[in-house]
Predict the structure.
Amino acid sequence: MSMSLDALFNQVASNFGILGTNSNGNTQGVNSGESYLFDFGENTDVKNQSYDEFIEEYIEAAISLGYTREEAIKELEANDITVDSSEYDSSDDDSKEISANTSLKKTIAVDKSELPEEVQEMIEEIEGKLDKNDSEIKDLESKVKKLTEEAEKEIEEAVAKQDKLKDEYDEDSKDAVSSALEEYIAANKENPGSMDKSDLQELIKKGMPNKPDLAEVVASITAASDLLDEVDDCLEDINKLTQESKNLEAQISQLTTKQVTDCNQIASMLEEKGVTISDEEWNLAETNNLDLSEKMEDGSARYIFAQGQEDGEYHIYDMAQDGASLARLYGENNGYCIVENGNGYIRNYNESENGSNTVYSLNDCGELEETQACYSTCSPLSFDLNGDGVKTSDKVIDYDIDGDGEVDKINDSSDAVLVFDKDGDGISGADGSECFGNNTDLDGDGKADGFKDGFEALKALATDAGLINGKDDNVLDENDLAVLEKDYGLKMKANGYNSEVQSLADLGITEINLAQTDSTTLTDDFDGNGNQLMQQEGATFTINGETREYADIWHKKQDDEVENGEQSNLYSSEIQEHESFYDLYKNIVENLRNKIENIKNSLDSYTDIDELLEDDELKKYSDYFELLKPEDNEEKIA
């Protein structure tokens, strides 16, 4: 859903000019930022519109967002508004056509005259795009229905043609068997003892008709398959437009909702949650005039309030800047002057019911939203051994990528992963803490050492070992690599995270260049599986005399339901929580494709001799049938 029911309640109440009452009994506006109770009694000012109209519009708006009527009424009652459900019967709703196209325009029908002129123009432009999307979606839905009906008709015709051909073939085959047996009986009437199975088989084979020409059946199922491919393309377009409309609706909601940008107010809201952020960091936000309620293109919060992985304290992170903390972005000396280690980077965080960290952000109504989350997984260095670039595999594997003791599902590396042995147990790369990334644990204390990426982690190991000086010596040569292998268990997993470790020398690796620059480039979703690729200029290695590159892969934890080798490409899973037009027709297409597959599988399946011999007209030849039964591994007549 693009808006929660309580946020929707606030929005519609605001449109109606309704005021609430806070916990002290004082009248408050709905966007005051304080908690309030709604009371439609004497203390309520409903401007020019009735109580019933408010309830009706709220329910309609909730339904347009995909909520049920019962859920909307339940939310009203949670705000002490008693609703006679019989007055808002859902029978009329049952006849509404299922559609992926849900619009917030009723919900956001505010008085634009109260908004700045430039904001009004922006809203009108967005509404124009929404109308255009609505029209395109309706056209596409009509096209999908038409194409699906045509495909279904082609499949029905294919089945009918095949059944007709099979019936004709069976009848001709039965006649052929009957004629062959009559001929055989007549030829051996005077001398029954000379009956020979092979002679009878030859007679029947001669008389059997040729299998029918299936070209028309094949043409029908091919046409149906092509039509369904077209349906898939249309559904993809519907999905893209639906997602675009949701983003546009979120933009309108932002423009028509009071934005909370005051740092003191946000700090106060966080403090109520027991979260404190330093004055220096709030000062960075104010000095740089940041709108902490800003949203990303996908509607998610740009700025989040989360714990640093090194110090465990809460800081402000900018998700549009690779998840860097404000200290790193705006503080002197890479943020170290403000907080220890500059707080590092969050990169991504994945929602999890059992997440170990709580992340806060501002929602569309300026309220503090809380998410249980796990930070991004480990970013291990991956080495391109064959020279075709650092890649991941579509195969999803189980591996504890962040070293927290819990197995994760990730896309495997298609290349080699550099690993070491942190705890001296003789096993290198047991989990992500023994790879080189943001969760590397060099000192073996069971906690990540706070490296921002794998490049920094590898450089730290080489520095600790006294093998580089960070100035004129940033290369690990063959001798250095041998030292790291002996003292730190440095190895290479050449075929993904769960493969056996190998010596770098055995693989032909003679040099790793750590480069002098810390500058990196991050590419989002570089593999189509949601993972990120971080590259650093000069990060190269030498294998068998040839220079190759290595890079940092930032893995996204994949969903449990994703099967190995079957990464979903069926568009976004965030379309609707209820059954939509898209969901409905995806199921229809899948069922029709199954029918096509069944027809294909049965194209060469025609009645064999055993089935023919069960026919009532042929049973009179039962004595001769024994001659046709296979003996000594001889085949039946086909």
